[in-house]
Amino acid sequence: MRDTKSLVTIADYSKDEILEILESAAGFEANPNRKILQGKVVATLFFEPSTRTRLSFETAVVRLGGSVIGFSDAATSSSSKGESLNDTIRMVSSYADAIVMRHPLEGAARYASEISPIPIINAGDGANQHPSQTLLDLYSIRKTQGGLENLNISLVGDLKYGRTVHSLIIAMSHFKPRFKFIAPDELKMPEEYKDFCRKNDIPFVETAELTDSFNDADILYMTRVQRERFQDLMEYERVKNIYTLHDNMLENTKPNLRILHPLPRVNEINPDVDSNPKAYYFQQAQNGLYIRQAILSKVLGY
Amino acid sequence: MEKQLKVAALCNGTVIDHLPAEKLFTVVSILNLEQCSNQITIGNNLESKRLGTKGIIKISDRFFAEHEINKIALIAPNAKINIIRNYQVVEKHPLQLPDEVRDIIQCPNPNCITNHQAVATRFHVVDEKNALRLRCHYCEREVAREEVKIK
Ligand SMILES: [Zn+2]
Predict the structure, then answer these.
(1) What is the pTM of this model?
(2) Catalytic: which of A35, A52, A198, A246?
(3) pLDDT, tens digit, 9 for 90 and up, residues A112-157
(4) Residue B130 lies in domain
(5) Are residues B20 and B88 both part of a single domain?
(6) Residue B122 Cα, ligand 1 centroid: separation in angstroms?
(7) Residues B17 and B87 both lie in one domain
(8) How far apart are CA A242 and CA A209, in angstroms?
(9) What is the average pLDDT value for chain B, to the nearest integer?
(10) Domain containing A170 — which CATH number?
(11) Cα B101 to averaged position of ligand 1 atoms, centre (Å)
(12) Do B25 and B54 share a domain, yes or no?
């Protein structure tokens, strides 16, 4: 049977479905050019620009033999003339077989999935969800650690607003992780996600200290610390420097440690880390292609 | 005396009792009773053993649909709804919040799709540690029941 449901949030996928996607992505990494979407049309509707994500999805479609229609910025689309999201989705769904959409408003993808007769893949809805990012994070973790179970994962930086770390907690909850939340007081992990960990028997510790705090980690997940999140700009200047990862901070870390970052980075990772074999963020971004091929195949029933 | 009784006792209709006095006019407004041409008796700041003071609304010949009743549960969860037929209370309607509340609450997130496009709001009721919260079906933000804004 064809399973053609939308992917709006990582919570839409069960543990088995997550593993199925990761398995399928590994197949695409081994052989990225498989023309299974020949004759299929995928619409990429980017109501706000995100070149990185759009190119990754479009490359995935093309490598699968499908074609792409769409727009990369709402200013060039009919929505700038006041067309409702409802009308745009209905119109596009009469042309395409699946829709990849990014929208500045939270909940836009969920709403689109309810009115669309074809599957919706959420490529980011405001500050809410970005499930293909989470799946590529999981893929990168599995690939570098040989599995997903029983890992020590340190999350660093903006844990308050950073949606990637929130989604990662939800997704990793299937695999018995142990978390360390490393963040300045202003950007601490929200109570909601700590409650989620407690309820799911996931151990976690919190600290504001970055140096020497991740020596037991298998994965160090860095996030952007953005200036606009701070009320007090002096506080930002202080935090910005404290939360920058330098190569010499990796001396006592485990040999299997890998550093992830959703990119683009600001200054959380000093360039001297880039040549360290523990730096994995550039390969992580590459993995996005295979994951997006796997997602497209799944929602289109292949 | 007889006339007073006629107003107070209801032949057919709905009595909404045990409203906190400060919530009475909000209930009047969310039930849209300003637009209702039926006979309505409203009492407020009445003595109540349980609440100190309470409000009561009696509406003749009017029976509310489930989604209207839900609105009351959100702001006055301990209110009592009595359905009156032929001067008898035929149905004591205990207020219960359903698992999902549709098109009643406004999402507090200004960046939520429901605040920008013609999308009916949907909230999932989550009961955690005895603190009732509502989670927007679309933007997934949560709001405490006390902070809910009725549309
Ligand atoms: Zn919302």
Answers:
(1) 0.86
(2) A52
(3) 999 999 999 999 999 899 999 999 999 999 999 999 999 999 999 9
(4) 100-147
(5) yes
(6) 8
(7) yes
(8) 8
(9) 86
(10) 3.40.50.1370
(11) 13
(12) yes
